[in-house]
Amino acid sequence: MEELLKVFDKNALIVGFLAVGLLAYFSDLFSKKVLNGRIPGSAIAIFLGLVLGYVGGVFTGGDKGLSDIPIFRGVGVLGGSMFRDFAIVATALGASFLLIKKSGVLGLISLIFGILIFFISGVAMAWLWGYRDAVSLATIGAGACTYIVGPVTGAALGASSEVIALSIAAGVVKTIAVTIFTPILAEKISLNDAGSAMAFGGIMGTSSGVAAGLAATDPKLVPYGAVTATFYTGLGCLLCPSLLYYLIEILL
Amino acid sequence: MLIYGVALLSFSYLLGQWLGELLGKLIGINSNVGGVGFAMIILMLLKELFERKGWWKHEMISGIDFWNKMYIPVVIAMAASLNVKAAISSGNLAIVAGIIPVILAFAFFPFLMRAFKHN
To answer: Where is each Malonate/sodium symporter MadM subunit N-terminal domain found (chain A) (predicted)?
Structure first.
């Protein structure tokens, strides 16, 4: 046993491949045999991933979900930003440059609306919860955009660490919500072609959530959603601590 | 050769990320702006160039296609590495501020699409 653990420890990424492969296999089996394919196996696997992330957090008290358990360290490497971005770029293989160019303007408009919707409604929630200072309001509103925009804004404005932590949590909740709601609501909002996927990526913004949600809906849409979503965090980091923060200060 | 495809993907990735960092610095924020998007566009342009030159060979494609298909497993691993517990247990505001805007955005999405199609 000790020897096996040693092998696992030395080869974390390989263990990650095996663990994710097994999870995908059982999710697919469950999808086919129990649900008659009504929910795709990849959607179940992503959801189970979130559940395991929760379990990992409960067991270890760490902040990286399942990958804080030593033998599953490799899952964190495989799911880290390097492999995530690398694989997203590879999805461009199946995308058409012409279609992206055609919907470029729509993508840009949706990015701006996306930032505004999330920031304003995030600020409104914080207001309802009793926050009245512009710095906390802007930080929580930024957190509603993504879990990166939140702390970047909070740090720039000098928000308290408690508010920054809250903004990160709101951003992670957003990622999870987009992941779960996208495959459920895709048909209702006619999210079914390259143009709508680009607009969707711009509105929702969270690269991880959009990518995971579209993967569970229709993998062909992933590159189109990703190509706009990738600009969202940067645009949010630009607008939230500056223009949008000043707007709040003026309104108060 | 398979590695040519992987190398082409890596080249696009690194160049795109670099552009993203430069753009972030240019507009004065400490964050990568659109690095992944730039990388995707670079890869698509290179694909067109290679096709025209007749260099776009099956084995090369399969080196990129492997990572294209690894995308969903990577997303599963990413979901399992999120700080789900903290997100759920850090109070009602985090949950409300995380979920309500998403619902609003879903409600707004069809209006945006309709408005855009009219124009």
So the answer is: 5-251
